[in-house]
Amino acid sequence: MVEKDTTEFSRESFKEKILRQLEEGNEGRMVKQDFEKRSQEEPTLPQFLQEKEPAFTRKNGLPHIPDDFDLPTPFNKGDFGEKLKQQNDQPKEPGEVTKEDFLKASSEPYHFDKNNFDAIKKEVEYQAPLAFERPIFDPIDQPHYSRKSAQTQDEFTQGEDGVEKMPQTKRQNSKHPAPKHKNKKKNKKKKTKNTAGRIIAVIVVIFVLAAAAAGWYSYSYVKSGVLPLNPKDHTIKAINIPAGSSSKQIGSILEKDGIIRNGAIFQYYTKFKNYTGFKSGYYNLSPSMSLSSIAKDLQEGGTQKPVDPTLGKVTIPEGLTLEQIAKRITINADEKNAKTPFSEADFMKVVQDPTFIAKMATAYPNLFKSLPQKSAGVKYQLEGYLFPATYDYTKKSTVETLVTSMIEAMNTQLTPYYSQIASSTRSVNQVLSLASIVEKEANNDDDRRNVAGTFNNREAAGMTLDSNSTVLYAEGKLGDHTTLTQDATINTSLNSPYNTYLYKGAGPGPIDSPSLSSITAVLKPAQNQYYYFVADVTTGKVYFAKTLAEQNENVQTYVNAKLKK
After folding, report:
1. Is residue 265 located within the same domain as residue 370?
2. Which of 286, 315, 407, 492 has the fewest CB atoms in 10 Å of its CB?
3. Which helix (H) or strand (E) holds 393?
4. CB atoms within 10 A of CB 267
């Protein structure tokens, strides 16, 4: 009984030992898997005998199998022997382990053969598939692999015989493979280099984005500083610019008073645009003004004392009559389609008020020294005495203050010429009267001087001036632009002191408000030999003649012929 237990123990120990040796000897996975698979599918003979006759010894060998013994599924008595015979009859390949070899080995004492084990180990190393992911050999015989070659050990190819083979790489066959620690250092350096490159790229991108953002912010900041602070805010503020202030100081003052957005931008803008010569004084400025308009106002100069902020402007062109001026004062020229607080009726009432006229004559004696009286046949005493220009009005402005400003402007323009007029043969009224006719007869400075010279020549020769404009004024037809029909159909026989076809001289008074250019043309006329002139009815160009025959020819060419077309 003891011998039977020992025999059974020895057989089981030997089996486990063989499997362990095969695993330790780097026996391929396929051999192990094939063996385990066959062990599960087809029980070995010792197992079969163990189940049926568990008690046997090495001396007695295999027990006798009765004919009526039923083998467990999938075996039976008939085909078991045939399978065993077929397996024994098949030729064995070198190194192949069969059931017979295994049974034989399990029936005999175990003897370790080192030479045979080395041969099997060598063959398994190069031919058999690995039992595990990496072979386990003696460190002395184990070659050194790099990380790359170690990774390739897990890659296999399928051979013709169905056995997986390990691919041969240059690193595996190298006699002096690179140490693992060196590869780790290289990979670490490479990884560090890649990380540094990414960091540099991120820094560059951030720098570019920051530069673009800074550029856009600078552009927007400068652009907003050049534009008006608030285009919709027309509030007027009185700003004092001290004498000797630099553009930097002026910019600071304007920024502090809420006129501009940034004083530094004002300084650089005026320097870039070459605005210089800023003057001191009080200025009425608003946040709706641009830097260029502010700079131009500063160049013109301010007032010594603060003035009320302007609400609008009234523009009076050259050559308008008082009746035409009355219509103009109702229009605010500072805004489109805007109106002023003044009316035509109030204006005409003021300019005809004897008390107001007397007040002006007292205030400006040089201007009104020769003012015609109503009895002289003038239509309006102040006709021609209001200087054509643009005038601001404030909340405190009235029609009377507005007319006063126009008279004051005329006095200012004539002040340099009062002495010259006093030493001449003409009075201020006569100068203004002739200048008002020249204003209607010529369109440029040269023509004005020649027309004035021609009138002087006619007066010197005792001739009448024969101006159509004076007759049109007497008829009440003198407008901003006289039509050709009006000019050609005048009544030269009209009994009016303004009819220069009947009466010598320039009439009892001016027929419109002349420009300074026409006034200076009368004071400094051209010296010529002309006695006649006519204007082209299509172009306005003036043609002068010395004789009446030349004049008639010019009239036929530049007036009658073109009127027929």
Report:
1. no
2. 492
3. strand 390-394
4. 17
Cα gap 102→185, rounded to integer Å: 50
C-alpha distance from residue 208 to each of 201, 213, 221, 318 (Å): 11, 9, 20, 61
pLDDT of residue 122: 62
Percent of the chain with pLDDT over 70: 62
Is it the case that residue 195 has pLDDT exceeding 70? yes
Shared domain for 443 and 548, answered yes or no, is yes
**356 in the same domain as 244:** no
Q: How many domains does the chain have?
A: 3
Q: Is residue 507 part of a domain?
A: yes
Pairing of strands 390-394, 310-315: antiparallel
Residue 390 lies inside a defined structural domain of this protein: yes
257 and 381, same domain (yes or no): no
pLDDT in tens, 405-447: 999 999 999 999 999 999 999 999 999 999 999 999 898 899 9
Q: Which domain holds residue 271?
A: 237-300
DSSP-derived secondary structure for 76-105: -HHHHHHHHHHHHHSPPPTT---HHHHHHH
The answer to whether the beta carbons of residues 329 and 314 sit under 8 Å apart is yes
Q: How confident is the model over 286-314, as pLDDT tens digits? A: 898 888 889 999 998 888 888 887 788 99
- CATH assignment of the domain containing 241: 3.30.1490.480
3-state class of 359 per DSSP? helix
Averaged pLDDT of the chain: 76
Q: Is residue 504 part of a domain?
A: yes
Asked which of 419, 438, 471 is the last residue of a domain, the reply is 419
Q: Read off the amino acid at residue 62.
A: L
Question: Are 346 and 288 found together in one domain?
Answer: no
The confidence band for 272, taking pLDDT boundaries of 50, 70 and 90, is confident
Same domain? For 451 and 517 the reply is yes
Task: Give per-residue pLDDT as tens, 199-209.
Answer: 888 888 888 88
Are 560 and 429 members of one domain? Answer: yes
Q: What DSSP line would sit under 269-315, residue for residue? A: HHHHTT------EEEEE-TTS-HHHHHHHHHH--BSS--PPEEEEEE
Give the gyration radius of the chain's Cα atoms. 63
Please indicate whether residue 493 or residue 123 has the higher confidence score (pLDDT). Answer: 493
Are 408 and 278 found together in one domain?
A: no
pTM, full prediction: 0.54
pLDDT band at 118 (very low <50, low <70, confident <90, very high): low
Residue 561 φ then ψ, to 5°? -65, -35
CA distance 239 to 307: 10
- Residue 52 covered by a domain: no
